[in-house]
């Protein structure tokens, strides 16, 4: 049987799809980011509208436009850059110490059934109990200087990282370990060459949580016992009833949190693309 083509009808020749045809659109590539921006704009515009119609009193709750003016004031008065740098320094040092402690310790605990049995209840308790309740003890031990604030940041960040690393080490593919045993690798070599790369998706997932919690720890420490940092700015400006300035500092904290978490998510997608996980 042969196909007939109506006389005068145009004939459209099909061609195979190229890589350019399969390339996702800009919206598809940045869908999560764009939807987040749209959601944020909806919330901010609704908030500003409630202020304009008088439902929300901006003297006590501030407003988006007032917060923008507050950012300008903080930047001009020098109350923005140094506190931001102080907070980021605490977060950076806390994360670095947490990585140095959490990753090796998690790998060792995860690969040892005895150590896991001994440490797992304590780790779960320390992670579940809010670190804020330990503030009086930390102040009693370390005072209220930078050391105490750094201890709080590390306390907040190290346990989610440790839990994820332990889980990754315990769920390591048995084939990887079998190959290591075939080549008679030492335990240290196995941890470095097999366990560490194999648990990288878990490590980066824990790192993302640790980054967020470290920022929370830094702000809490600055609120309660700081003389610098964005948390201290929020506390001081709120005490002076400068709600626009306080909300501006909170907005800067929110932007830092988003940038840190998105940056870690980007790093996670680049380093663990082979694992098949999708952000």
From TrEMBL:
It is a multi-pass membrane protein. The keyword Transport applies. Keywords: Cell membrane, Membrane, Transmembrane, Transmembrane helix, Transport. The chain crosses the membrane at residues 32-55, 88-110, 122-144, 150-169, 214-234, 246-267. One of its GO terms (biological process) is transmembrane transport. The lineage of its organism: Bacteria, Bacillati, Actinomycetota, Actinomycetes, Pseudonocardiales. It holds the Pfam family BPD_transp_1. Residues 84-265 form the ABC transmembrane type-1 domain. PROSITE patterns: ABC_TM1. This is ABC transmembrane type-1 domain-containing protein. The keyword Protein biosynthesis does not apply. GO terms for cellular component: plasma membrane. Belongs to the binding-protein-dependent transport system permease family. It comes from the Bacteria. CDD domains: TM_PBP2. It is found in: Cell membrane.
């Amino acid at each position: 049987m042969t196909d007939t083509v109506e006389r005068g009808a145009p004939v459209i020749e099909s061609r195979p799809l190229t890589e350019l045809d399969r390339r996702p659109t800009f919206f598809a590539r940045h869908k999560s980011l764009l939807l987040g921006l749209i959601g944020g704009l909806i919330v901010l515009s609704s908030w500003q509208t409630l202020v304009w119609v008088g439902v929300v009193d901006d003297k006590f709750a501030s407003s988006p436009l007032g917060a923008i003016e507050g950012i300008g004031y903080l930047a001009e008065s020098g109350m923005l850059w140094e506190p931001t740098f102080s907070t980021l320094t605490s977060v950076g040092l806390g994360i670095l110490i947490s990585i140095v402690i959490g990753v090796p310790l998690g790998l060792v605990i995860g690969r040892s059934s005895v150590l896991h049995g001994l440490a797992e209840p304590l780790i779960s308790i320390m992670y579940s109990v809010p670190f804020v309740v330990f503030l009086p003890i930390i102040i009693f031990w370390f005072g209220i200087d930078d050391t105490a604030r750094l201890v709080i940041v590390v306390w907040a960040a190290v346990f989610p990282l440790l839990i994820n690393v332990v889980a990754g080490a315990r769920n390591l593919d048995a084939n990887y370990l079998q190959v290591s045993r075939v080549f008679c690798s030492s335990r240290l070599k196995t941890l470095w060459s097999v366990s560490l790369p194999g648990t990288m998706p878990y490590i980066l997932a824990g790192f993302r949580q640790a980054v967020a919690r470290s920022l929370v720890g830094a702000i809490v420490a600055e609120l309660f016992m700081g003389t610098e940092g964005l948390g201290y700015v929020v506390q001081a400006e709120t005490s002076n009833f400068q709600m626009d300035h306080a909300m501006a500092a909170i907005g800067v904290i929110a932007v830092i949190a988003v940038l840190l978490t998105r940056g870690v998510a980007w790093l996670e997608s680049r380093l663990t693309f082979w694992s098949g996980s999708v952000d």
